[in-house]
Automatic annotation (TrEMBL):
This is HNH endonuclease signature motif containing protein. It is an enzyme of class 3 (hydrolase). Residues 50-92 form the HNH nuclease domain. InterPro entries: His-Me_finger_sf (IPR044925), HNH_nuc (IPR003615), Homing_endonuclease_His-Me (IPR044930). The lineage of its organism: Bacteria, Bacillati, Actinomycetota, Actinomycetes, Micromonosporales. GO terms for molecular function: endonuclease activity; hydrolase activity. Pfam families: HNH_3. Keywords: Endonuclease, Hydrolase, Nuclease. Its EC number is 3.1.-.-. The keyword Hydrolase applies. It comes from Plantactinospora solaniradicis.
C-alpha cells in the first residue's frame, strides 16, 4: 500500500469511520466488510486489503518484511494497532495453537518424518495447515512421471 499524504489522510478518515471502540476490551472493532474468515477488509487503490494490516501501516508504519500481524486479543475483527504484534508465520501459528489448542499444530514433523522447519514448511492457503516441502516436491515428481508415462 503506497499512498501520498492526501490519499493517506483520506484513507485514515475512511478507516476511522468503519471502527467502533469496545470500551471493555479496548478492541477497535471493524464494522464494515469482512472476508470469509471474519477479518475486516477495506479497499485501497481499488483492491481489498485486510483492515488490520491497513491499521498497522496507517498508525505504526510498514509491516517488517517476512512478518505477519498476530492478533494478541485473538479477535480477528479487531484492528487496534496496540493489539497487533508482527511475528513470523510460525510464531503466529504457535500462538494460535496455545490459544485454541490443535493437536496437528503440535507436531514437529510430517507423516514421513521430515521436520517442520522454516525452510521445509509451506503454509497452505485459507488456513489449511502446514505442508512439507519435501513431500510436496516428491508428490509433484510422481505426478509428472505418471503424466509422461500416459
Amino acid at each position: 500500500m503506497v499512498a501520498t499524504g492526501t490519499e493517506t489522510q483520506s484513507l485514515k478518515q475512511r478507516f476511522r469511520n468503519k471502527v467502533r471502540v469496545d470500551l471493555v476490551t479496548g478492541c477497535w472493532m471493524w464494522t464494515a466488510s469482512v472476508d470469509n474468515h471474519g477479518y475486516g477488509q477495506i479497499n485501497v487503490a481499488g483492491a481489498p486489503v485486510k483492515a488490520h494490516r491497513v491499521s498497522w501501516m496507517l498508525f505504526v508504519g510498514p509491516i517488517p518484511d517476512g512478518l505477519t500481524l498476530d492478533h494478541l486479543c485473538r479477535v480477528v475483527r479487531c484492528v487496534s494497532p496496540d493489539h497487533l504484534d508482527p511475528v513470523t508465520r510460525s510464531e503466529n501459528t504457535s500462538r494460535q495453537i496455545a490459544a485454541i489448542g490443535h493437536p496437528n499444530a503440535l507436531k514437529t514433523e510430517c507423516t514421513n518424518g521430515h521436520g517442520f522447519s522454516e525452510t521445509n514448511t509451506r503454509y497452505a492457503s485459507r488456513g489449511r495447515g502446514r505442508v512439507c516441502r519435501i513431500c510436496r516436491a516428491e508428490a509433484n515428481k510422481r505426478y509428472r512421471q505418471g503424466r509422461r508415462a500416459a
